[in-house]
Amino acid sequence: MKLLEMLQTRAETEDSYFRKALLKEDIARVETLMTKADAASDLDQLMKDGLYIGWTKGDLRTGEIREFLAPFMAAVFALQQGGSDEQAVIDSWIIFNRERMKVLVHCL
Predict the structure, then answer these.
(1) How far apart are CA 75 and CA 108, in angstroms?
(2) CB–CB of 14/23 below 8 Å?
(3) Which residue range(s) make up the domain with 65?
(4) Statement: the pTM of the whole predicted model exceeds 0.85
(5) CB within 8 A of 62, min separation 6: which ones?
(6) How many CB atoms neighbour CB 56 within 10 A?
(7) Which terminus of the chain has a smaller tally of CB atoms within 10 A, N or C?
(8) How many domains does the chain have?
């Protein structure tokens, strides 16, 4: 998946310890989501199973970014179910991650 390659490249070249750690955590989350997408019988199941896998600290604020996470999960599900639109995954990740960072910054 191109998104994973992009995140891994950034993690390998990142100077900031904090950003590197977050990128590695994101890689693990995306890999978990991909596994859940492979196993899901439908998108609704993935939306339930993939919502709380650590997108925010303890998932306490994940509900606040659900509207941005849902399109990302839908794009991953489509890709894992045989779709070929990797750009949709990347585009939805960028939007989701931007909004998630706003929430995470307020947690500091």
Answers:
(1) 30
(2) yes
(3) 2-107
(4) yes
(5) 51, 52, 55, 56, 69
(6) 17
(7) C
(8) 1
